[in-house]
């Protein structure tokens, strides 16, 4: 466990050192729960979003949406987030510091299911309260467990005295529900069909932690599949199978993924399973695949007065469609990819760190080097090759800094699958050295073979 905890620190340090992820507002001392994507993180994020989008595009009946972050407050009242979306908290009765009850229980090895109701977590907390102490004043005296709402708020308006409080969306899913009728009425879709969306979500997480795992501003990739009540369970099983199989495209080891059914269903769910990944700090949720029934559309029908029913031409029935949801986070996916890819070994008698990304995920597919940067004929040839490859494969990098050994180490650290070196032989016979990241093996190939080699 110690070694694995250390791994998270190593990944966090590498991510900053090489420009994947920077702590938010760092030059002002940081801003908890926020991170900024650096140059390589931006490429990695793009690859992750593209893979997810492609998986959704494989379905003929998939619509895409980009809904707004500012939404009417009623949306969140209808969805149940205003009344029910909360974390369990306790206050130290001595020094008044506030803690998440489940995190305190975690310190003595008691796992509280995230989806537990307030009475359930109160019972669990009372069973163990004698063993729990405040990390600030060391006293063992806590309040009862109470709920702290997670919705992030802001204000909008013309004049500050008239500003109204607004919610920042806590999930992208509600943007999909409130547009379900609009998408249907556009005339291109009929039940069953899905609406997929990638976008930012915001939560007032009291203790953001574990790097990208729990952030206050994060990105979701969500899909709601609208289906007839009779076909919902079959569709649910199909989506579960598809979503687990999908992680192979990201190169994730099968044994690091598992299913976990929710013991305590959240207020909207009829059945709920999570795909968990074994992060360095233990098994944790990566994606939820939930059968939400007609809860959300029913609620929006009730609160908005808009008819959410659907007339099914095939069955001649009118019903409110049921919803299967697949919901995963870009940030947790990237933390998983970094954790899975991170490797340390020894090469040519030297310790090295490398990221074993699958090619489709690697932010840089190949780096192009002139053997010597002060030989103009080598640099010119290398530049020509770089430009030629970039036309087909934009995610490539020019690197002429330091000696070849240093360039290899640097590219290994950012997970570049191939390095291409241009030397004096290249000028004679149009061949280059292609070096593979995982094995360090080198071979000569012709310039015209580069594209097929590095896109494999
Ligand atoms: N629409 C359903 C929904 O939002 P959720 O389990 O609260 O369900 C779905 O969130 C996914 O969003 C999670 O599986 C996770 O990947 C990501 N996620 C949730 N909270 C997050 C946070 N604070 N930081 C990073 N990712 C988060």
UniProtKB/TrEMBL annotation:
Which SUPFAM superfamilies does this entry report, sorted A to Z?
Class II aaRS ABD-related (SSF52954), Class II aaRS and biotin synthetases (SSF55681)
Q: Provide the E.C. number(s) assigned to this enzyme.
A: 6.1.1.14
Annotated Gene Ontology cellular components are:
cytoplasm
Instruction: Keyword check for Repeat, yes or no.
Output: no
Sorted alphabetically, which InterPro entries does this protein's record hold? aa-tRNA-synt_IIb (IPR002314), aa-tRNA-synth_II (IPR006195), aa-tRNA-synth_II/BPL/LPL (IPR045864), Anticodon-bd (IPR004154), Anticodon-bd_dom_sf (IPR036621), Gly-tRNA_synthase/POLG2 (IPR027031), GlyRS-like_core (IPR033731), tRNA-synt_gly (IPR002315)
User: Which UniProt keywords are listed?
Assistant: Aminoacyl-tRNA synthetase, ATP-binding, Ligase, Nucleotide-binding, Protein biosynthesis
Q: What does the record give under GO molecular function?
A: ATP binding; glycine-tRNA ligase activity
Q: Which GO terms describe its biological process?
A: glycyl-tRNA aminoacylation
Domain Aminoacyl-transfer RNA synthetases class-II family profile stretches: 9-370
- EC class: ligase
Can you tell me which family this protein belongs to? Belongs to the class-II aminoacyl-tRNA synthetase family.
Name the PANTHER family on file.
Answer: DNA POLYMERASE SUBUNIT GAMMA-2, MITOCHONDRIAL, GLYCYL-TRNA SYNTHETASE/DNA POLYMERASE SUBUNIT GAMMA-2
What this protein is called in its record is glycine--tRNA ligase
């Amino acid at each position: 466990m110690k070694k694995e905890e250390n791994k998270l620190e190593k990944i966090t340090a590498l991510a900053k050192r090489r420009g994947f992820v920077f702590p938010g507002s760092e030059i002002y001392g940081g801003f908890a729960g926020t991170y900024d994507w650096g140059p390589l993180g931006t490429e990695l994020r793009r690859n992750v979003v593209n893979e997810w989008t492609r998986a959704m595009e494989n379905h003929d009946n998939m619509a895409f949406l980009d809904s707004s972050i500012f939404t009417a407050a009623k949306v969140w009242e209808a969805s149940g987030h205003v009344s029910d979306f909360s974390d369990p908290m306790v206050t130290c009765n001595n020094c008044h510091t506030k803690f998440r009850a489940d995190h305190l229980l975690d310190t003595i090895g008691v796992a509280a299911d995230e989806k537990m109701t307030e009475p359930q977590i109160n019972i669990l907390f009372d069973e163990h309260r004698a063993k729990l102490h405040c990390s600030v004043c060391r006293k063992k005296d806590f309040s009862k467990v109470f709920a702290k709402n997670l919705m992030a708020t802001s204000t909008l308006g013309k004049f500050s005295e008239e500003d109204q409080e607004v919610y920042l969306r806590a999930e992208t899913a509600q943007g999909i529900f409130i547009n379900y009728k609009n998408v249907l009425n556009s005339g291109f879709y009929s039940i069953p069909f899905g609406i997929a969306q990638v976008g930012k979500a915001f939560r007032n997480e009291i203790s953001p932690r574990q790097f990208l795992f729990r952030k206050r501003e994060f990105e979701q990739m969500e899909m709601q599949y609208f289906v007839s009540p009779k076909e919902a369970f079959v569709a649910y099983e199909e989506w579960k199978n598809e979503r687990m199989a999908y992680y192979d495209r990201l190169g994730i080891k099968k044994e690091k993924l598992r299913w976990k059914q929710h013991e305590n269903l959240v207020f909207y769910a009829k059945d709920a399973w999570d795909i968990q990944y074994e992060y360095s700090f233990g098994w944790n949720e990566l994606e939820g695949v939930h059968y939400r029934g007609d809860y959300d559309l029913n609620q929006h029908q009730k609160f908005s007065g808009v008819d959410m029913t659907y007339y099914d031409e095939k069955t001649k029935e009118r019903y409110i469609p049921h919803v299967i949801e697949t919901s995963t986070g870009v940030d947790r996916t990237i933390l998983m990819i970094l954790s899975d890819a991170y490797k340390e070994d020894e090469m040519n008698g030297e310790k090295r760190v490398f990221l074993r990304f699958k090619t489709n995920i690697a932010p840089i597919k190949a780096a192009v080097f002139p053997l010597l940067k002060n030989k103009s004929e080598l640099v010119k040839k290398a530049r020509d090759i770089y430009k030629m490859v970039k036309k087909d494969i934009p995610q490539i990098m020019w690197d002429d800094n330091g000696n070849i050994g240093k360039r290899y180490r640097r590219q290994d650290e950012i997970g570049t699958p191939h390095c291409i070196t241009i030397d004096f032989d290249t000028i004679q016979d149009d061949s280059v050295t292609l070096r593979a990241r995982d094995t360090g093996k080198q071979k000569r190939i012709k310039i015209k073979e580069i594209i097929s080699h590095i896109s494999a």
